[in-house]
Write a structure and sequence with these properties.
Blueprint: E1 7-13, H1 17-25, E2 39-45, E3 52-59, E4 62-74, E5 78-86, E6 104-114, E7 117-126, H2 131-140, H3 144-163
Antiparallel strand pairs: 1-7, 2-3, 3-4, 4-5, 5-6, 6-7
Length: about 160
Amino acid sequence: MSELPTYVLEREFDAPRELVWKTWTDPELLPRWYGPNVETIVHRLDLKPGGLWLGEMKWDGNSNYQRVEYSEVTPPERLVWLHAVSDVNWNIIANPMMADWPRVLLTTVTFEEEGGRTRLRLTWVPHEATEAEIACFAAAMGGMDKGWGAGMELLTELLAELQA
């Protein structure tokens, strides 16, 4: 099989690594930047291998549920999880807005500190995906920076506020 399409997001933040890590792992801070322009609700966040982050994004009377299962938690360096759309009972389902979207994405986030700044790198790769899911993901990669980019702007503002 050919190499899987991989979405890569890289950002540098003017904040120490421990603080950037906290914004990704604290259930009080996560909703302040994750899911821009929607209300993000963290229903559960068990930060450990096998632990779950169950999230809901609400807008215009609609809810979108996400189920994240952590496979690696190495503070403050690395998070690895399986990311999926779920139903209200946290069962993994096909994405109701994109039928061929991969049911599960392998997500890896690394945090590197250099001189009081933090370099963040996120990768998203289809996990155990069908050919149709892989093709859908590859076709959508060009637009992923929009959502993630808006979240990163909010994260930049949040980090500045936390250090003020």
